[in-house]
Amino acid sequence: NRIPFIYITSYSDKMTLEKVKNSRPYGFITKPYKAADIVSTVYLAINNFQYRKIDVLRKKELPNNDVPMQLRVVIHYIMKQLDKKIEVAELAAMTRWDVDHFTRIFKQYLTLTPYQFILKAKIEAAAVIIAQTEEPLRGIAIDFGFSSYSNFYNAFKKVMGDTPENIRLKGRINL
């Protein structure tokens, strides 16, 4: 595609989404919408279009074009807020879906619940810092919002399959 495009429609049923997804739109807005929906979607569409060739080179790509734009905006927000506590209700409000529907749609497209996705993203970001710096591990755990080092350690080991100390010793991670 040489021109990014966005669908605006009052239909968001599965059949409509199936028809639309093959055209690889840069956004999908459902009516009724607010002016902010248009502004944020157009902004992200232009940004994503500018960086489309760089994205192909990324080792690990986040959601593809099959993911609804509302979820892409949420994921972008999550990735910018990893050092803060993020509530699922806050994320659902960004999409104007209720929490249960938001959680179901999120898991349908990303195979993780919002909570699992946030935890995994925090741990992977922490792993990069651990591998590349000498920052104290307890400080990194606190920076990513963990209440204790033991909580961080257990989550880290579950997500990464290794301990923070081993990642630090190796000086590299495999995401």
Structure explained in plain terms:
The structure is a single chain. With 175 residues, this protein is mainly alpha-helical. It is built from ten helices and two strands; from the N terminus they run βαβααααααααα. It has helices at residues 14-21, 35-50, 52-57, 69-80, 88-95, 99-110, 114-132, 137-143, 149-160, 164-170; strands at residues 6-9, 27-30. A two-stranded parallel sheet has the order 1-2. The longest helix has 19 residues, at 114-132. The protein is elongated and about 50 Å long. The protein starts with 5 loop residues before the first strand and ends in a 5-residue tail after the last helix. Residues 53-63 have low confidence and may be disordered.
User: Strands across the major sheet, in which order?
Assistant: 1-2
Judging from the principal axes of the Cα atoms, what is the shape? elongated
Series of secondary-structure elements, N-terminal to C-terminal: EHEHHHHHHHHH
Number of helices: 10
Estimated share of beta-strand residues? under 5%
The overall average pLDDT, rounded, is 84
Largest sheet: 2 strands, parallel
Low-confidence stretches: 53-63
Q: Structural class given helices, strands, pairing? A: mainly alpha
